[in-house]
Each structure stands twice: as C-alpha cells, then as structure tokens.
Design brief:
heterodimer; A: 112 residues; mainly beta; 0% helix; B: 114 residues; seven-stranded mixed β-sheet; four-stranded antiparallel β-sheet; 11 strands; globular
Chain lengths: 112, 114
C-alpha cells in the first residue's frame, strides 16, 4: 500500500539556521508529492508540490525535489525565520486516486 | 480563493451526546473529506464523500457517521461522543482528477469530550 514516513519531531532550530525535514514514501505507480504546513490554530495549507521525478517544488523559500531513485521528497530552507514555526506534513496521491496519504507531521519551532 | 468553513473552532461536549460537526465549501468541489488529527498520529481519514449522498469509509470510521445532502455541505456526526474522540477535526475538499491542486482545508474544530 501507499505510505509516507517523515522524520521524528519536534525539531527546534535557531533563526537563520538551515532546515531539512526528511520525507520518504512507498507507492505503486507514479504519485504526486506535496508538503503542507499548519500554522498554530489553523488548518493545513499547501506549501509546495511536485508531480514527476526530478521536479522541484518551491514556495516561500522552501524547496523539495522529487527523487524517484531514493523515493524521497525532503523539505529544505536555507535560512529559517521565527514565522516558519509550524507543523509540516508530507503527503502523496497516486494518479487517478482521490485521497491524499499523509505522513505523521513534524513540528518545527524556530527560536529567535 | 476556495473557502472551506468549519462552523466551530472549539467545542466542548459531554460523554454520550450526539455531536454534529459542519463543513461548508464554496467552490462546487465534488470531493469532501473528514480527518482527525492527533499528536504523533498525523491525519487519519474518517470518511470521504465523492458526491451528494455518496460516502466511503476511511481508515477510522468507527463511532462516526456522515451526511452529505447538498454538494457544498458535509457533516460529521458522533453518534454517542466518547472521551477518546477528543481531537482536532479537519474538513477538506478537492476536485476529482485535479490531484495537482491538492486539497483545500478548513481551519479545524477542536472537540473536547468530557
């Protein structure tokens, strides 16, 4: 079956540090991959996406590259800010499917 | 912008009560979803609806039912609330076949059952 595994949290960094949140997946076929972000007290928002191998999704300084050979979609940011503190979810959806499959989420806290 | 609106941000109910969580979307999406979110467990799908009056069980449907009488509204019903249903509930909608666009989520309802 399809599944998504994220690195364990919580993750705590200082402002301007480099961020990586690991995400690996198991899927049949050729899934599309997503990162969602949940700020405190809010629902999930789509952060970025990639639909095929070697695609790079980017938004708000965050990037993730779809790596089919390692079945990974790691989230990176070169210099984090306090406002990036949130819970981050990696997700996938298979072609023709209707339901996203989510990872367990990683809580990120950025200290000033 | 697509909006998904959940009627309550916070709700406190007593054990045994029948609880209704309401979700409305304004972009004519066919698909609607109910998830619960718990620390360390991520999002777990409770129910999915792909059209009016059509529904499909998700991963954890026990203790829940749903109603979709109109396209824009998807209700989650806790028939007899229990303390283990204390959680954050998230509603989402999407367009069939538009997987590239992902889901649009509501802001969530934090339910406490006492």
């Amino acid at each position: 079956g399809n599944s998504v595994t994220q690195m364990e949290g919580p993750v705590t960094l200082s402002e301007e540090a480099f961020l990586t949140i690991n995400c690996t997946y198991t899927a049949t076929g050729y899934p599309s991959l997503f990162w969602y972000v949940q700020y405190p007290g809010e629902g999930l928002q789509l952060l970025l996406k990639a639909t095929k191998a070697d695609d790079k999704g980017s938004n708000k300084g965050f990037e993730a590259t779809y790596r089919k050979e390692t079945t990974s979609f790691h989230l990176e940011k070169g210099s984090v800010q306090v406002s990036d503190s949130a819970v981050y979810f990696c997700a996938l959806i298979n072609q023709g499917a209707q339901k996203l499959v989510f990872g367990q989420g990683t809580r990120l806290t950025i200290n000033p | 912008d697509v909006k998904v609106t959940q009627s309550s941000r916070y709700l406190v109910k007593r054990t045994g009560e029948k609880v209704f969580l309401e979700c409305v979307q304004d972009m004519d999406h066919e698909n609607m979803f109910w998830y619960r979110q718990d620390p360390g467990l991520g999002l777990r799908l409770i129910y999915f609806s792909y059209d009016v009056k059509m529904k499909e069980k998700g991963d954890i449907p026990e203790g829940y039912s749903v109603s979709r009488e109109k396209k824009e509204r998807f209700s989650l019903i806790l028939e007899s609330a229990s303390t283990n249903q204390t959680s954050m509930y998230l509603c989402a909608s999407s367009i069939p076949g538009q997987a590239l666009y992902g889901y649009t989520f509501g802001s969530g309802t934090r339910l406490t059952v006492v």
